[in-house]
Design goal:
mainly beta, seven-stranded antiparallel sheet, 2 helices
Amino acid sequence: LPSADAAVAKTIHPGVSVNYGSVTCTVGAVMRERHRVFLAVPASCGGVNLGKTQDGCSAPQSPQGSPVSIQGAKHRGALVYSSYSEMQLHGIRSPTWCYYNDLSLIQVDRRDLPRVSAAIPGVGVPTSVVAKLPAKGTALRIGANSGTAGATGHKGWELDLSSPTAMFKTTDCG
């Protein structure tokens, strides 16, 4: 991510809230492509039917370019990608995809880039991405929090987790 600037606090990171489409959601990850930085949130956050179940293949969505309020930012971000909108554009109707393909990307305003960190508070920066879900019974750890991988469902789109802490939720792994 952008080079560290000791004078600027890193107030935009995984775990902060964003608001668009009348819904507040939590940032799950920070990603970068060259000089652009994106926040990953569930696409279901961008639905325009507040409080109703979201079907990614039919639920009305906020349009690309919609302004997004970002906790810790001085400037609004912009919605630049929604898996729900893409599935609707391409006529996808698979129930598994419509429910589990749930990703939106919010571009952070360039003036806020010095405030961004990919580090998860209290844990640090992710060091790798796995291509396969962990086998049932595998011990999982995020910082000081632990959990155990359970069964997978919906052709690998869902992973059940058991955890003595609130750090892991089934919806964290899709």
